[in-house]
Amino acid sequence: MTTGYVLAIDQGTTGTKVIVFDHDGAVRGLAYSEFTQHYPKPGWVEHDAEEIWTVSLNLIPEALSKADVAASEIRAIGITNQRETTLFWERATGAPVGRAIVWQDRRTASVCDDLKRRGLEETFRHRTGLVVDPYFSGTKIKWLLDNTDGLRARAEKGEIAFGTIDSWLVWKLTGGRVHVTDYSNASRTLLYNIQDLRWDHELLEILSVPEAILPSVKPSSYIYGHTDRSVFYGQQVPIAGIAGDQQAALFGQGGFSEGMAKNTYGTGSFILLNTGREVVASREGLLTTVAWGIRDEAVEYALEGSVFITGAAVQWLRDGLGIIETASESEALASSLDSNDGVYFVPALAGLGAPHWDAYARGTITGITRGTTRAHLARAALESICYQTRDVVEAMERDSGIALKEIRVDGGAVANRFMMQFQADILGVPIVVPLVTETTSLGAAYLAGLAVGFWESREELSAKWKVRERYEPRMSETERARLYERWLRAVERAKNWEQRV
Length: 501
Prior knowledge:
Layout: E1 5-11, E2 15-21, E3 27-34, E4 46-47, H1 49-67, E5 74-81, E6 87-90, E7 100-101, H2 109-117, H3 121-128, H4 137-147, H5 151-156, E8 160-163, H6 165-173, E9 180-182, H7 183-186, E10 192-193, E11 198-199, H8 201-206, E12 216-218, E13 221-226, E14 238-244, H9 245-252, E15 261-265, E16 269-276, E17 287-292, E18 300-307, H10 311-321, H11 329-335, E19 344-346, E20 364-366, H12 374-400, E21 407-411, H13 417-427, E22 431-434, H14 439-452, H15 458-462, E23 467-471, H16 477-494
Parallel strand pairs: 1-5, 5-14, 9-12, 15-21, 21-22
Antiparallel strand pairs: 1-2, 2-3, 4-7, 6-8, 10-11, 13-14, 15-16, 16-18, 17-18, 19-20, 22-23
Helix pairs in contact: 9-14, 10-12, 11-12, 12-13
């Protein structure tokens, strides 16, 4: 029997988890901590990279302790991360250059508008599989270089490193010896050619990004380097898996075959459909992205629909409006009503993502009457998550020609039984919750374990996937269509609200 454990660092948008997995893929120890969100201006979202590192590092001993596992028993480390969040640091000192710009940040909308006016959107879409939107790293990089005194000159001299959060954590874990990312994270930068698997020199030139700042790009399951002894309790443990959080979740869900789909409910929601080794270009406002690369095997791809605000809408009810004290309260409030009574909440709090891509949309609540209560707002927030998922799934089916037979789901919202049933109802297909719901972390662990031989194959991993709960649709087709038609009317009212610059 294989001995030892794999440790996963799951660095998300609002918090970090460190989880120890055993050979059965079971959670042996979990530690979690939130960190600070910074909102310096409307539409701006920032993180402190040093805080992210400190939080992540401090969680490792807690997770090991809860698992009753020694650092010497860890066979490999896998990293999964919020993807497009962009940061710079000094190569000489490892100190961040200002705060990281988070994927939700919309400050580069005008840069994107200019690229579109210049007729460049199709160039980016063809080479990167992405739309031109502030969501991605490329325009954030340009903004930082253009708006930070002296940074561009230092970057061109090779003094500055760019990275998404995975690159930052690997740099810190290895004591500054390794500057790397994987295919999946590189494919989210708006700078990486997903067909040629290289940084695209023409796109770098268009955005005035010096190649000297970029990390090397490796497979998602690969030994990138080893932990510095000063960081990991005297141990040199291989860092052997990296994947963006949504690709990691698809991998952790066992979505290895073409046609398999998953939805992760987090701060946002992200639906991915495995398209195999074929690059499927979207005509429906979806993204074509690298799913993963396993060692020297051919890269695999996915279609993705990125919904910016889902779980964050419930957080806003809690933190912004104060109408609930905990996210879990939303389920009881929503269930206390027989219907939504015509109240719809379009949570375009950071614009609209797939398939609409409207950076100027803003949050909208429609259908309010004197009888509207906080229960209606809670229900509308939960229903909005499900409606936005349907927006993406319908586009995905049109693009791929695949009618989805079920969707595997994960993330914090799978504990909300009201929402899971409504999701099955509004989609008209079963929603399947796995036994291990920490699938993002599990995917990172699986990728790392494969690279060091802790697990032998994807077939071995597929056999470990088990169902916890299955929600079958119960709503009539007539009611499903009626509710969804009113949702689409509400979305139209939210679009193009903010004045374009």
